[in-house]
Amino acid sequence: MRFLAALFLCLLPQLAAAQERPSAILVLDASGSMWGQIDGKAKITIAQEVIGGLLTDMPGDQALGLTAYGHRRKGDCNDIETLVLPGGDTRAAIANAVNAIQPKGKTPLSAAVIQAAETLKYSEEKATVILVSDGKETCEFDPCEVGKQLEQTGVDFTAHVIGFDIADPADRAELQCLAEETGGTYYSASNAQELGTAIFEVVEVNQPPVAITARVTATAVTSLSNTPITDPITWALTGPNGPVDVSAEQNPFSLDLDLGAYTLTADWLIGEQSQTTAFELFGSADATVQIVFDAPLPKASVTPSENPATAGSMIDILWAGPGAVQDFIGIGPQGATGADRWENFAYTKDGAPAALLMPVTPGAYTLSYFHGPDHLVLATADLTVTPVSASLTAPAEAPAGSQITLDWTGPGYDNDYIGIGPVAAQDSGRWQNYSYTREGSPLPLTLPVEPGAYMIRYFLGQDRAVLAERPITLTAAGASITAPETAPAGSTIQVGWSGPDYEGDYIAIGKPDASGAAQWETYSYTRDGSPLALETPTEPGNYLIRYITGQDRKTLAEAPLVLEPVTASLTAPQTAIGGAVITVEWTGPNYPQDFIAIGKTGAEGSARWAKYTRTEEGSPLTLQLPAAPGDYTLRYFLNADRSVLAEAPITLTQAPATLSAPPRARAGEVTEITWQGPDYPSDYIAIGKAGAEGSARWEKYIRTSSGNPATLPLPETPGTYVIRYFINADRYVIAEIPITLE
């Protein structure tokens, strides 16, 4: 904002002495458009701040007045008011008037300039009007014609115009004409920077320059660091008025400089470098100038422990250098550029010597010491990489899916492996199965289950390069299944089989049209022998028994199986008391882990077996009932898939119970409770805070098995409590009474 204040000062007429200063009036646009924004701030707010700066820097004896338009009424071309007449030290009055303005109306800028000129008696005395406006004339006058008339009829009249954010060329032209017809200057500004620039373009036209300087700090650094160079730096500075004295060899140095263009040269004597930069000062804000010297590269060296070196091997690289955090030793083909210069690399932070993996392709390579984030090369060394060989010995033919043993020779580098894949396979299809060479030679290798022509290959772990290969033909493996044609659903059958019995092979049951994992709804591994026990699915229907290889789920043999429905029945009371134990008679398959359960009618999932007993207990069996009353269903569940074979409804009523105890008692003591209730095993009478939930309901308790009346210990803390009768099975409350502890 000091730029804007300086601009206004520039527009005040130049006079030699205070007593000769002519009067001037500032005409301020207060039309509604002044609420528009420049850089997020209302134009009226910018104008108010600028005028505030003007008044601060303006001499007290400057006779300045203030006229505004559009600030009182909307749509009124006569809304023009002289708020402050020119006179002695009007700064405070103008500041108060400007800050009180609220833009509202039209833009009678020409009439406002005329009124200001008449107030200054422009036809009799020298007069200056400074117009600040953001738009075109919206009333009857032509600003250009008004400028001509005022120039012709005035003694020495000048109008300077500052246009705020005026985008329309026609609007700018009429304001520019107003200024030029009176010998004034038009300034166009769309942002603060342009306003500042305008100040310095016109400052010498209107009055002697206001002394504006800027504090400049110059620093010399290297390209590797923003830290100032500590060695002596010699500076040479030339500005708009010639050389500027910078006598000290300080780095950084700071000077107060006049505005303008400068050239700065820095000599780094120890670094044997000189750098020059140019800069320009536009305003009084502090400025910084940085001169960057090329940093001298640190010294380094790299020496391979082997030369030539075998492809794919790991060798030691002796190195010397700065060892910065990001430094590394890399190897790449001779003549490579960019990242190709480090096919493989090792960080210097891991110590010296550096263990570096050689490329797998033989040829001429370059070792390099790479320094810093820009990968500057500090040292190089030539290195030759020689070929590495391998061999494979394996049968020419083997059953598909079997495991063979092969002999191999080769480098046995980390993660090298022997793989098998179809002869024409590409990429990872070349190693459908594989074994790592670290397991030694001879090496076991599991073969794919699909018959056909395959290739066994020795792969380098580094980049999957093939060192050796050998063809092999895989023949089909046979299998058979012997099993009953029908069986009860959910039963366990005996299945005879023949087949390769590879690791992970299994006999499975699934629907005939099933695919994927649905082919083995139930299964048993062939390692269990032949015949093996196989549990059947619980859903009746047509199925297939399959011999499936564990390696890739390939079916080698299959046999049909029809599963017939199984039934069950339940006989139990239709009503019972909640929490009681009832007797249930049943019929059914009694498969392992089958169970009779009770759950709420309409329940789903595990809520269907709130309580249960295994059928292995025999028929009849006993079943603990839930404590809560309601409508329930008894169900016979097949354990295999929780399917229901039979169900019967039962209604549970609440077990009757009563409690009797004194309404008040002393905290921390005991009280006698007279009770009536079912007295199921582990039932208890407890006391807890009124409104308590969960285990907080039984701060203290006593089992009903202790007798009647029961002696109940009381909590230590006074308050309002509730004594409750709990059925232990579900922590279910069947009676409660309040008690106050004092």
From TrEMBL:
Residues 23-203 form the VWFA domain. It comes from the Bacteria. The keyword Signal applies. InterPro entries: VWF_A, vWFA_dom_sf. SUPFAM superfamilies: vWA-like (SSF53300). Transmembrane segments: none annotated. Keywords: Signal. Pfam families: VWA_2 (PF13519). The keyword Signal applies. Residues 1-18 form the signal peptide. This is VWA domain-containing protein. It comes from Harenicola maris. The lineage of its organism: Bacteria, Pseudomonadati, Pseudomonadota, Alphaproteobacteria, Rhodobacterales.
